[in-house]
Amino acid sequence: MSLFKPRYITFDCYGTLINFEMANAARALYADRVAAEDMKAFTDAFAAYRLDEILGAWKPYEQVVDNAIRRTCKRCNVEYREGDGKSIYEQVPTWGPHPDTSAGLAKVAKEFPLVGLSNAATAQIPHNIERIGVPFHAVYTAEQAQAYKPRMQAFEYMLDQLGCAPQDILHVSSSFRYDLMTAHDLGIKNKVWVNRGHEPANPYYNYTEIKDIGGLAAVVGL
């Protein structure tokens, strides 16, 4: 990608900036109900059902998590206990940043406004962002947009709030399925993929790859 000076650098939050520990939370909760050799299949199914749950009309994130874990238990023939979903959901605001996030963002925050776009509950995400310790211009949530990524409505809400066009931003994410595919479809040409090992590379979507947030400064010429 040629050197680009965006009006805003926009970010996916959970997974990209914040260490997304949903699978670990499920592993801990279901350790007494799922055999060790079956746990990866269980947490993979949980991730798949969370994605499926957000593709329709907006509903509260607590409901997304609870529905997904209930469906996972049914599919895997595992006992669901009332309150399991809430227990996992309530851990979300306790999660902190990846080790590279704070220092990497501090380098670019001096020159560019930082914006988060998160599939988060509006009441939860401020706790995660606060743990990063770097100022954000704004953080928008699926709850505010009334749509979860990867739906276009979430991105359109952010662009409307910022008063800018797709070509004005640089969008940063570790996920193609949640962010970079939709960003491509919306005409957001300037994209960065943080390769955290969540998904395989997909060069069709025309992005700059970095291994962690520490590499972002070089992308914008700092």
From TrEMBL:
A GO molecular-function annotation: hydrolase activity, acting on acid halide bonds, in C-halide compounds
Annotated signal peptide: none
Entry-linked InterPro entries: 2-HAD (IPR006328), HAD-like_sf (IPR036412), HAD-SF_hydro_IA (IPR006439), HAD_sf (IPR023214), S-2-haloacid_dehalogenase (IPR051540)
Keyword tags: Hydrolase
Domain of life: Bacteria
Record flagged with keyword Hydrolase: yes
Pfam families the UniProt entry points to: Hydrolase
Protein name: 2-haloalkanoic acid dehalogenase, type II
